[in-house]
Amino acid sequence: MADQLTEEQIEEFREAFVLFAGDRSPEEEAELLEWKESCAAIRAVWNDEDQLAEVFRRALAGGGLAGLGEGDEPVLMPLTAFGVELQVLDHAVLATYTQTFANPVQECLEVTYSFPVRPKASVAAMRAEVDGRSVVGRVVEKAAARDQYEEARAQRKAAALLEKATGDVMRLSIGQISPGSQVVVQVELVWELAHLGGGSLRLGVPMLVGPRYPLGVIEMEEAIALDEAGQGPGTAPFWLHAQVSVASPLLEIKSPTHSALQVSLDGCEAEAALSLPAMPDSEIVVLLEVTEATPARCWLEADEENEDQGVLYSVIYPEEASLQHLWPRSEATTLPKEFVFLLDRSGSMQGAQIQKAAVALQLFLRSLPVGCYFDIVGFGSRWSSLFGGSRPYNAETLRIASEHVQHVKADLGGTELMGPLTALLSQPPHAGFERRLVLLTDGQVCNTAAVLEFVRDNAKATNIYTVGIGNGVSHELVEGLAEASGGSAEFAAGSEAVDAIVVRQLSRAMKPMAPRLTQVSFPGLGFGAVAPASLSERRGGHPRGICCRGDRVVVAATIVQGLSDLSCSDFQLHFVRGDGQQGSLSLPAVRLPPRGQLRKIVGKALIDDASTYLRPQSPAQERQRQEQIIVDLGVDFQLATRYTSFIAISSTQEPLASSRSVSANRMLPPRPSLAGAGGTMRTKDLKSLMHSLGQNPTEAELQDMINEVDCDGIGTIDFPEFLAMQARKMKDTDTEEELVEAFRVFDTRGDGFISAAELRNVMTNLGEALDEHEIDEMIREADVDGDLFDVEDAWEATPAQTSSEVQPELLQSLVLLQAFDGAWDLNVGFAALFHVELASLEPPAGLDSRVWASALALGVLAQCQGQSQW
After folding, report:
1. Which of 390, 393, 549, 822 is within CB 3.0–4.6 Å of 373 for a Cys-Cys bond?
2. Which CATH number characterizes residue 160's domain?
3. pTM for the full model?
């Protein structure tokens, strides 16, 4: 019975049970007591500095994380607060990170703090407030920034240095925090919302850096920053506030990772807030749903000092359907597809990640089109192919693949992605087929730059569709692979369901070779830098172009002349279809007041594009030239990059004092697992335990529970008995409301009755054409009281459904039972899914058993997942 519980549920019950269990082993008691004392002492020390050294020494003895100064003297965590203010304007995100650091000791401190950011996020500003004095940061070349920082330290001046350590990790250094003082650092970042298709948008705020598999040599500074960020975000209080303003009315805003997010909707505007007692240990994901898909737009903004110059920024979502009017109608030829699923089976995927990846892969397998080829490649420190090459998709290969995925484990060591990518991309697609790679991974590799360069150079005939799974995903890798290959990226963090992701990614992958955007122009304007640079009119456009599959495409440019007396107001986009035919689209441009708001966003786009031309294997002279382009852009637009940094220095000299260096990345010691949850608890404590889990049984219900598990009457319950009791309780939960929702599939009028016409309509849609006699026979058999076919009759005649808490498992079970042709067989396995005998699911007279089973399955899917996903 307990095997029906998820790992998360078992872990929740274990944690509650150990609090009430009374006869754990002496070792377990000692371990739990030591952990409680350590945590309590660390928290207490925040209010009692006298205990600081002793408590942290005790915590460190157990392997905890710490930063030590000279003489191994521990120091109180200097990060005291972390806040995030977000402004979502259309698709752009303007974020302000406010980090407060305090010095509780009688000597100067130098603090370092590494934190994750979106790989495409650009730091647009940095300000530091030191004891009430405000210092504004400026961007200079990275080496020069470090020299100025060290010079400020030598002069005993408070200084802050912000550097981009890796593609998705920033490292902040604060020098000379005087005794008893505090420093507030504000960092402004700019990035874009992820477009999930239609009116669905995703906002992700990374808070955790997952461990990276050390495949090869990493630069020492990058390794230090990754290691520091991987220690955890710290335990300071955290808050987040977001203001949202979009073009279409908002339908919903929710967070699948942090249910405590408070949301207020008002048409096209919204506010959201989150407050936590400690830093979150996973990415904060916010999903936005708007009534209409975001339209294409173009903006112009003049410089504040020279109105003839300025910037252009355009966001478009080109797809084949919306571009068809550009060309004469013709019969398009669609090639069949070859799908290769790359499944990350490294150790970092253990637990919920590999389970979620397996669910996604099962859904992919059952959604593939007839006539395609496919294979599954698992990789870690080694890799292997299920079939040894792509095989035709049929009932037998689906069965083999499905059984393989059912038993897949994260047992292949580290994450080495280059091997399978090299093997796959070195071979042409199956003759007459278009190849699509689908990658399911937590994205934790070490050689990200090399992998992305390889894909850019070798994925000419292959698109990669990535699904990042888990809370510590490397967005740089997952998004970079999709962008480099012309595919698309999606993420599933926390409780984000994978079914909708599968539908979106597969629908994109199924589309034929899309039209390509090859060039942009604006009559009357002289462009300087253009992003993507390959679209510049001066370069003659891009021969391969940017694939137009409905995903967001950003075009940005600096305007060097012509803006003050511009007569034309249309931005020109030039496309080429797969058969070589050309067409152009005009996009009206909107002029913004010259306030400099658009300039940072354009600078970010130019830097992102310039970074794609940095190749590890390029000649040194070429790399230096490209790096200098990025440095010049960073300094010109005042944006932090891999080669430029923010530096802020106070003009005030601090008094002479000793100093030490500490890290603000800290966590409390991990809780002991007590894997066996050993010991028993008294039945009289059961009520308190149930209340701690948010359950409030009556006295009668409580006594029934005790009678079920305490058969010998000795007054104790062990953990396996408690699990069995919880599983039984969840199974017996009343699910009438869920079944009513399922029957609404048939009850199209919503009056609580199923008429003959409604029944005929549903059966016809399922492929079963019934005559009037057969319809009447079905109604008579089910309608026991002669008032048509109502929901109450159906409830009495149909087995209880699984509760909403186990809907993911129900969906997975239904998927596994689905046949190659998409239908379900009425057999013992199908009946077992509903915990009934097969005889109780006998179809009405004259109705095929497969049609009946499929109707039941679709009814369950309709109420538990929604038609948009199945």
Report:
1. 390
2. 2.60.40.1730
3. 0.54
**Do both 429 and 526 map to the same domain?**
no
Torsion of CA 154, 158, 162, 163, to 10 degrees: 10
List, edge to edge, every strand of the sheet that includes 516-521: 546-547, 516-521, 570-576, 582-588
Closest Cα partner for 600 from 163, 301, 244, 317? 301
Other CB atoms closer than 10 Å to residue 695's CB: what's the count? 12
CATH of the domain at 696: 1.10.238.10
Domain co-membership, 458 together with 341: yes
End-to-end CA gap in the chain: 29
Could you give the CA distance from residue 562 to residue 635 in angstroms, rounded to a whole number? 25
The total number of residues shown for the chain amounts to 870
Burial call 269-284: b when 16+ CB within 10 Å, e when fewer = ebebebebeebbebbb
Are both 828 and 740 inside the same structural domain?
yes
Convert the pLDDT of each residue in 443-457 to its tens digit. 777 788 888 888 888
- How far, in whole angstroms, is CA 633 from its chain's centroid? 30
| C-alpha closest to that of 283 among 440, 116, 98 | 116
Strands of 590-592's sheet in order across: 526-531, 553-561, 310-316, 297-302, 590-592
Q: How far apart are CA 187 and CA 132, in angstroms?
A: 17
From residue 219, give the alpha-carbon distance in Å to each of 166, 619, 698: 10, 19, 62
Which residue is listed with tokens 């199908």? 830
Token pair, residue 85, equals 């203010």
**Exposed, middle or buried by CB within 10 Å (0-12, 13-18, 19+), for 508?**
buried
Domain tally, the chain: 5
What residue numbers bound the domain in which 3 lies?
A: 1-22+680-731
Together in a domain, 845 and 800: yes
Torsion of the alpha carbons at 711, 9, 64 and 51, rounded to the nearest 10: -70
Strand partners, 587: 571
Contact 763, 772 (CB under 8 A): no
Instruction: Give me Rg for the CA atoms of the chain.
Output: 30
User: Would 483 be classed as within a structural domain?
Assistant: yes
Is 269 in the same domain as 182?
Answer: yes
Reported as a single tens digit per residue, the pLDDT across 107-135 is 777 777 777 888 778 888 888 887 777 88
Sites in the chain below the pLDDT cut of 50:
1-2, 43, 45-72, 74, 77, 209-220, 222-233, 539-543, 657-658, 666-668, 673-677, 733-742, 766-767, 784-785, 787-806, 865-868
**Crossing angle for the helix pair 719-731 and 699-709, to the nearest 10 degrees:** 130
Contact predicate 518/575, CB 8 Å: yes
CA separation for the pair 760, 774 (Å, rounded): 10
CB contact at 8 A, 202 and 479? no
Q: Is residue 130 part of a domain?
A: yes
